[in-house]
Amino acid sequence: AQSVTQPDIHITVSEGASLELRCNYSYGATPYLFWYVQSPGQGLQLLLKYFSGDTLVQGIKGFEAEFKRSQSSFNLRKPSVHWSDAAEYFCAVGPSNFGNEKLTFGTGTRLTIIP
Amino acid sequence: GAVVSQHPSRVICKSGTSVKIECRSLDFQATTMFWYRQFPKKSLMLMATSNEGSKATYEQGVEKDKFLINHASLTLSTLTVTSAHPEDSSFYICSARDPRANYGYTFGSGTRLTVV
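Predict the joint structure of the above. Result:
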């Protein structure tokens, strides 16, 4: 069965500092990988996704993620965080056969930004 | 871009009553919609997959008689929590699949249900 692990429940970063959120997955085949962001009391917004090709993926709001097959990881990064980045971040994995597109989510990482 | 509207955003109901949550795709036709439940400080748990014109497919452990899902049109799916109890209090989120894009999910803004 597929699973996603986000080892960090809560991360605090100073505004302007760099950020890396970790995500590890377990999947029997090549997965499709996603990062979503959720502001308090809101739904989820897609930051970026990886299907194939270049393993470094650029997303919205200045985020990027790198797929490392050997480490089963898909970590999210941002060079300089802004106060508006404070939110909950979810990594997700899905099967690569379109038509059966159920996502499995990690438990999320809450990001706090301090001035 | 694709927009999904979820209503209401908050609802408080008394134990034993039923409450309906609507999920609408505003600018695309969603043949498939998903309903999730999110517990505090927890991930999203998929409850069911809703396909237009057919019965919903429920995940293991989800009571289909308690959580009634209807996908009557290509733009509307509803989740009805029947005979609600305090333990049903949660944040419910829908997601609609835009068939024009692979993995084209768009999420609603969620519904906070409180059962008193």
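Chain B touches chain A through 22 residues (CB under 8 Å).
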